[in-house]
Structure formats: structure tokens, C-alpha cells
Amino acid sequence: MAAAKNAPKVREKVRAFALGLPGAVEEFPWGESVIKVNKKVFVFLGSEEGGDAPGISVKLKDPEAHEHAMSVPGAEPTGYGLGRAGWVSVPLAGSGALSAELLCDWVEESYRVIAPKRLIAELDAG
């Protein structure tokens, strides 16, 4: 039960981390929060309230990180065909709830896959 209560806090930490990355902006297509860089989504945060269990979706190209994410209870390839491109949807609550730190690592990896080289250089210089 504690994991479900922590989900909004974890989501907010992940959101704040993502928005702190160079060039990151938040938009709300479909009434859900997404964080973009260079007009491309690098993390789906879903909606704050809603019937769906809270979770995030990130693009993980690193095979080890992708495999780890897919091993989380409730994790699945992201819908709408995105799973085939390496996107993974991970729940923020439940028996396998992850730390905000690990989720932020995955958000950064997703950012590095999507962001232009100049912004990655800015991140690395910071």
C-alpha cells in the first residue's frame, strides 16, 4: 500500500528531473504529460489523476537497462507500436515499485537517445 501512496511523489521527482535536462519542455497532448526535447517525446508521464495505474514510459536502447525494465512486475512494451522501438512502460506502484533514482537514470538514457548531440554535450558539460 505504501508504494501506491509514494507513486505521486516518485512521479513528481521524475518529472522535475526530466524538466531539468537541457532543452526539455512539458506538453499535454491527449490530456497526459509528456516531456520533450527538440519536439520529440523522451518520457511519457501519463495523467496525474485517472483510472490508469500511475506509470511512465521511456525509450531504452541499452539492452541491459531494457531487460531490467522489462523484468519489473507490471512492466510491458509501450503500446501503439512504440514497444517495437524500445519503449517500455513501467508502473510507479505495486510490488515491484522502483526508486525515483533508477527511474531518473532511465529517463536520462531515454533523453540521450532522443536529444540532439549539442544538448547531450551541454548535459555532459554541466
From TrEMBL:
Keywords, in A-Z order: DNA-binding
Descriptive protein name: MmcQ/YjbR family DNA-binding protein
Lineage: Bacteria, Bacillati, Actinomycetota, Actinomycetes, Kitasatosporales
MF terms (GO), sorted A to Z: DNA binding
Alphabetized InterPro entries for the sequence: YjbR-like_sf, YjbR/MT2646/Rv2570-like
